[in-house]
Design a protein that fits this description.
Elements lengths: L1 E8 L4 E8 L6 H14 L16 E7 L6 E7 L8 H4 L3 H4 L5 E7 L5 E3 L1 E4 H5 L14 E5 L11 E8 L4 E9 L5 E2 L6 E2 L6 E7 L6 E14 L2 E16 L7 E7 L1 H10 L7 E14 L1 H12 L19 E17 L1 H9 L10
Parallel strand pairs: 3-18, 12-18
Antiparallel strand pairs: 1-2, 3-4, 4-8, 5-6, 5-9, 7-8, 9-10, 11-13, 13-16, 14-15, 14-17, 17-18
Helix pairs in contact: 1-6
Length: about 350
């Protein structure tokens, strides 16, 4: 489980945005780093008021997937006050999380069905711990959608709403379209060939609402050191947050140079004459996400250079608050094998010969 924290200061508030997703859409890291870089170049006003009159500002991060499993959405809030230490507030559970006077619903606008999400402490129930940092780790609350309590299909519109339980008044809402499945079109012989200087192509089928994608390849390797045998899996993030062209075709082909395959092995494996290695199978995973995440990326990255505007725009599809509600879909294909040509290059080229593949 990956937890990313983003702390943004502006004239009025101390913002805290927590991101949590068991499977992740991993391209969020790139966006957050870009935001941090942009703020480092922004001009400062010597008279910054970090605290102001309290406002109810929710922070939501959710990616819905039509995979038949339970869904988890992180919902927290901006904390602020007229006085006090922001770092102390970051470790106060009542400053970060909503209390029982707030409830959250998810409605399938296509069918009219709805359900209330369950506020769940996931450290104890799921073993999902928050990483160490400025913010408290325990408890770690997410809002859970039980798979049996709301049904939805690809193409359905889902609406999230947060309510004040005192008067049942919604104070923020966000909607997204559930994405269609993504399907990797592997070759009939399930062989991948990475040749230096030559392109290797990947094609996947997607629905009309998929706007960006990640490509991840998992490389399985066996290491033998004397009597010790170790199984390793290298996670190769080939690309993150690439835009899917809006050309009306349900198929998209993406190519990379084979050099990246050898580079990732060199960066992850130690050159040790005592270790012999055997290359096993590979898995290819495609993850696609909806337009909300695409717009989030584009706006966050548009003003992050040295010559950019001093005020960085923000994107949120909440009617009030920060963050995004979007949808994702993923597909993973296992048991792919490396071509004999690529294996020979791996074993004998000057670049990788010292990795001792057999």
């Amino acid at each position: 489980m990956t937890i990313l924290t983003l702390k943004l200061f502006d004239k009025w508030h101390f913002y805290c945005l927590f991101v949590s997703d068991k499977n992740t859409i991993k391209n969020m890291k790139k966006v957050f780093f870009a935001l941090i870089i942009g703020f480092s170049f922004a001009s400062c006003n010597n008279e910054i008021d970090l605290f102001a009159e309290w406002e109810n500002i929710p922070v939501v991060y959710g990616l819905i997937e039509a995979d038949g499993n339970d869904q988890y959405i992180r919902i927290e809030r901006v904390f602020q006050g007229e006085e006090g230490n922001a770092f102390d507030a970051a470790n106060n559970v009542d400053s970060i999380y909503y209390n029982d006077d707030t409830y959250v619903t998810l409605t399938n606008n296509t069918t009219g069905q709805f359900t209330e999400l369950e506020k769940t402490e996931v450290s104890a129930t799921n073993g999902w711990d928050r990483e160490d940092g400025l913010f408290l780790r325990d408890p770690n609350f997410l809002y859970k959608l039980n798979k049996d309590e709301l049904s939805f299909e690809p193409g359905d519109e889902l609406n999230l709403a947060m309510y004040n339980a005192v008067d049942d008044t919604p104070f923020t809402e966000a909607s997204t379209i559930v994405l269609e499945p993504v399907d990797y079109q592997e070759s009939s012989n399930k062989i991948l060939s990475f040749r230096p200087g030559k392109p290797t192509g990947f094609t996947f089928e997607h629905g009309p609402n998929a706007k960006i994608f990640d490509l991840i390849i998992y490389l399985n390797i066996t290491e033998v050191n004397g009597s010790e045998i170790t199984e390793k899996t290298i996670k190769w993030i080939v690309t993150q947050g690439d835009v899917i062209p809006d050309n009306g075709s349900p198929f998209y082909s993406f190519s990379i140079l084979g050099d990246g395959f050898y580079s990732i092995l060199l960066s992850q494996l130690e050159k040790d004459p005592a270790i012999n290695r055997f290359f096993g199978t590979m898995s290819v995973e495609f993850i696609v996400a909806g337009n909300e995440l695409k717009e989030f990326n584009e706006i966050a990255l548009v003003n992050t250079g040295i010559t950019s505007a001093q005020v960085i725009p923000t994107y949120s599809n909440l009617s009030n608050g920060l963050g995004i509600l979007s949808s994702k879909a993923s597909s993973i294909v296992d048991e792919l094998v490396l071509s004999e040509v690529a294996l020979d290059t791996l074993r004998n080229s000057e670049l990788t010969a010292e990795l001792n593949f057999f």
